[in-house]
Amino acid sequence: MSGKYTPEQIKALRKLIQDDETYCATCLKVLNKKGDLVPFIWNKAQSYIHERLEAQRAEKGYVRALVLKGRQQGCSTYVAARYYKRTSTTKGRRAFIVSHEEKSTQNLFAMVKRYDDHNPLAPSKKASNAQELVFGRMDAGYKLATAGSQDVGRGNTAQLLHGSEFGFWQNAQKHLAGIGNS
């Protein structure tokens, strides 16, 4: 943050960035069931997932979670927002999205790009295309792959993984080996 912000503004920005739920409601937009662009206000399921993940992070210092859920509860929307916030506000933080099929992977990435397109605090981009979103000065960003492709994850570095619909991945063990190396 440069000299163009007052100390009060800097304090408010830091507070906003520390509170995931407020950050989502203030900075991120989602499409509701009618297709309208609206602020991302967490639902009950998203709040519950957040509480569980943060409890694990506080206890262990890291998060490893498999979420078994019903359809349309907003888990992927929440995870995409969680990872977008971390990659767009933390230097060197990288996320990797892997889903079972190309259409699903593209839908997850479209959410991330929507977050970035409408975020008033979005950092500058070094790259923004169909396969990645890279925040240049942050040396951070998002990449994606589909579990049906070869060598998923090899040659990649990421601290955050969103593996969606894992039960439908083809060659899951081979993909996990590649992702584990990243």
Mean pLDDT: 80
The major sheet is characterized as: 5 strands, mixed
- Write the element-wise H/E pattern from the N-terminal end onward: HHEEHHEHEEEEH
Percent of residues in helices: 40-55%
What spatial form do the alpha-carbon principal axes imply?
globular
Through-space gap between termini: 31 Å
Whole-number radius of gyration?
Answer: 16 Å
Instruction: Give the strand tally.
Output: 7
Which runs of at least 5 residues are low in confidence (pLDDT < 50)?
none
Keywords:
globular; five-stranded mixed β-sheet; single chain; two-stranded antiparallel sheet; 182 residues; alpha/beta; 16% strand
Topology diagram in text:
Elements: H1 7-18, H2 20-27, E1 29-31, E2 37-39, H3 44-60, H4 75-89, E3 94-99, H5 102-118, E4 127-128, E5 132-135, E6 140-146, E7 160-163, H6 172-181
Parallel strand pairs: 3-6, 3-7
Antiparallel strand pairs: 1-2, 4-5, 5-6
Helix pairs in contact: 4-5
Short description:
Helices cover 43% and strands 16% of the residues. The chain has 182 residues and is of the alpha/beta class.
Describe the overall structure:
With about 180 residues, the protein is of the alpha/beta class. Helices cover about 45% and strands about 15% of the residues. The radius of gyration is 16 Å and the shape is globular. The chain starts with 6 loop residues before the first helix and ends with a helix. The mean pLDDT is about 80.
